[in-house]
Each structure stands twice: as structure tokens, then as C-alpha cells.
Write a structure and sequence with these properties.
This protein has 332 residues and is an alpha/beta fold. It has 3 domains: 119 residues, Rossmann fold (3-Layer(aba) Sandwich); 99 residues, 3-Layer(aba) Sandwich (Rossmann fold); 83 residues, 3-Layer(aba) Sandwich (Rossmann fold), CATH 3.40.50.10800. Helix content is 41%, strand content 18%. The chain is built from 16 helices and 16 strands. The strands form 5 sheets. The protein has a 4-stranded parallel beta sheet, with helices on both faces. Strands 8-7-9-10 form a 4-stranded parallel beta sheet. It has a 4-stranded parallel beta sheet with strand order 12-11-13-14, covered by helices on one side. Strand 3, helix 2 and strand 4 form a beta-alpha-beta unit. Helix 1 packs parallel to helix 15 and helix 3 runs parallel beside helix 4. The longest helix has 17 residues. It is globular, with a radius of gyration of 20 Å. The protein starts with 5 loop residues before the first strand and ends in a 5-residue tail after the last helix.
């Protein structure tokens, strides 16, 4: 069957060779995947930005680090990570004895690619005496050079926990700028990387969707400052569910993050209206990398054992230490 192109707003995304094109195929593949994961002793993890039908067949959905931690609790020997490469690497780092499969090796990340071990090393030389705090949206090599990692949910708390008052924050400039406002007592130098999916959004676009009274704006901290200034809640994708609960009186929410996240929000709160913020006229926030895995590729990963993610032993040791330091930071 020839796969049809998928249209998301003004962005035309070419589907993968295994793209699902109708509901009957979704049901058939979903049933086969459910059987195969038992046969192969596998657990399926799906990020909140994955295609809705991929989220539906996952054992766990959530943010990248939360999924990796969840995998530590599972008895299955194989992890099928429906996300992007740096996420699968983190799963391998935290679960070194398990096999980690990424159904599509082309699923990368522009933010992660914005910094390399070489560019971080050069930057560290320019700022001696600073401690490197790295967002988990980064490669294993970059994590290995870092003192500690952070997530969008705990970035400010992690920075406060670092004994040094001079910080190099990598790689997201928008998240780093937000942290700098939260922790003014520290000198924070921010690397010039960004998530293009969030960085494209402007405050003027958000204001267009706020005209109805009582609208609550929830924004991811990877968004620009003018967007965050309009937000009632600034939080990670996982934190967005709690943000909705904090506003029981509100019926309408503007969500400033990748459009697929709203799939689960609608399931959990069917009586609320969720509107995805537009990155430009008629174009909702869309990450093409997060849409590179479909049900056909998940099935292939289970059948053929592709594509196994490995991490260099030295990088794994350094990256694991940076992640473990983060996990040891007390919660608020």
C-alpha cells in the first residue's frame, strides 16, 4: 500500500515507508505489537511528542528522562524507545544491562545536534572555573563532559544545587535564560543552542489565541522569553498535566509545545479544550524528528531487533555520573 503524505498545518511531512494510513491497519499493527512485545520480552516507551497511535501502544508515555527511569523498574530485557536518539542513549546509560532499540536511526534532535563534545570542550576552555550543567536533550558524549544534567522540570533546582556560583548552561538558550531569571544569585553563561520547534513560536501568535476570557496559557521553558511572559504556567511536558489540575475552573488552555502532547491531555481531561499554539499562521508546533517512528517501524524493531543503541564505555561512565548527580538532587 502506498503511504499518503501527512499534512500538519503548513508543514508537509513525508511519511516513513511503514506509515500507517487507515484505522484498520492501526488496529492490526497494534494487536501484532502487543503480541510481539510479550514474545520478545520487551517494554515500549513513547515520548509525549510521538504520533498518537504510537503513544497508544506504549507501556509508558512521558518525558525522556522519566521514561528511562521507568525502564529501570521494568523486568523486561529489551527496551523499545519511541523517541529520538539522545533519549535512547539515556535509557541505555541508565539501563546498561538491557538492550535498547530505536525503531528509526534517523530520529535525531536539532537541539542535541547544536552542541558537540568538541564545541563544549572549546567553550569550557573559554570559561575556566565554571561548572557545566547540561540539559538532558544532548548526546552521551556531551553529558560525559558535564558535571551534572538537568531536565526542563528541575533545571533551576539543579543549578541551585551546584556548589559553584559560576555556571555554563548547555545547550538550550531559552531554557538557560529562564533558569537565569529563576536563579539570579548565580552567574550563568548560556550556550547558543535552541529547539527550533519551540523557538519558532512568538508572543504575538500566543496573544491571538488568548482573546477569550479565562484562557490559561501553559508553556514549555524551551519557548522564547516573550512567550513565557504570557504564560500562566511554565513547565515540562509532564508538569503540564499537573498545571491543568491547578486550574479546575478553567475550560480552555493554550498549550505552547509540540502538538502531539495534546493527545494525552485530551484523554486525561476530556471536558477541557486544548489549543496548540501556532508557530506561524496556521502552523502548529511540529517536530519532524518526533514523527519519524510509526507502528510499522515499532513492529520491525520487535521482529528484527533493530536498531540497537550502544554507548562508548568511557562516555557511558561520565554521562551516568552526570545523570546520577541530577537524580540525587532533592525535590522541592
Amino acid at each position: 500500500m502506498q503511504a499518503r503524505p501527512v499534512i500538519h498545518g503548513a508543514v508537509r511531512i513525508a511519511p516513513a515507508p511503514y506509515a500507517v494510513v487507515d484505522e484498520a491497519e492501526v488496529r492490526e499493527l497494534s494487536a501484532e505489537i502487543a503480541r510481539l512485545k510479550l514474545e520478545k520480552d520487551a517494554v515500549i516507551l513513547a515520548h509525549n511528542y510521538q504520533l498518537p497511535e504510537v503513544q497508544e501502544i506504549a507501556d509508558f508515555t512521558g518525558d525522556s528522562l522519566g521514561l528511562s527511569i521507568e525502564a529501570q523498574k521494568c523486568s523486561q530485557k529489551t527496551i523499545v524507545f519511541c523517541g529520538v536518539l539522545f533519549m535512547a542513549e539515556s535509557a541505555k546509560i541508565l539501563n546498561p544491562g538491557k538492550r535498547v532499540l530505536l525503531p528509526n536511526l534517523a530520529a535525531g534532535c536539532s537541539l542535541s545536534d547544536s552542541i558537540t563534545a568538541e564545541s563544549l570542550g572549546d567553550w569550557m576552555a573559554r570559561y575556566p572555573g565554571h561548572t557545566v550543567v547540561t540539559y538532558v536533550n544532548s548526546s552521551a558524549e556531551v553529558k560525559a563532559l558535564s558535571y551534572i544534567c538537568c531536565t526542563s522540570a528541575n533545571a533551576a533546582r539543579v543549578v541551585r544545587s551546584v556548589p559553584n556560583d559560576r555556571i555554563l548552561f548547555t545547550p538550550d538558550r531559552n531554557l538557560g535564560a529562564w533558569v537565569r531569571r529563576q536563579v539570579p544569585e548565580k552567574e550563568i553563561v548560556v550556550y547558543d543552542g535552541a529547539c527550533p520547534t519551540h523557538d519558532v513560536l512568538r508572543g504575538v501568535n500566543v496573544r491571538e489565541t488568548m482573546k477569550e476570557p479565562g484562557t490559561i496559557v501553559i508553556a514549555h521553558p524551551e519557548c522564547r522569553e516573550d512567550v513565557l511572559d504570557l504564560a500562566d504556567e511554565i513547565c515540562s511536558t509532564t508538569g503540564m498535566f499537573d498545571a491543568v489540575r491547578r486550574h479546575p475552573e478553567a475550560l480552555r488552555f493554550v498549550v505552547a509545545t509540540e502538538w502531539a502532547h495534546v493527545h494525552r491531555m485530551k484523554q486525561l481531561f476530556p471536558d477541557r479544550e486544548f489549543i496548540v499554539a501556532d508557530g506561524c499562521i496556521g502552523c502548529r508546533l511540529h517536530c519532524p524528528y518526533m514523527k519519524m517512528i510509526d507502528l510499522g517501524q515499532v513492529r520491525r524493531a520487535l521482529v528484527e531487533g533493530v536498531f540497537e543503541v550502544t554507548v562508548d564505555a568511557e562516555d557511558m561512565a561520565g554521562a551516568r555520573l552526570a545523570l546520577e548527580r541530577m537524580l540525587a538532587v532533592p525535590r522541592d
